[in-house]
Amino acid sequence: MNPLLKMTDEELINTTQDETLDYDIRIHASKEYLKRKGVIGDGEEDGLHKSDGQCI
Question: Which run of H or E residues covers position 10?
Answer without folding.
Answer: helix 9-17
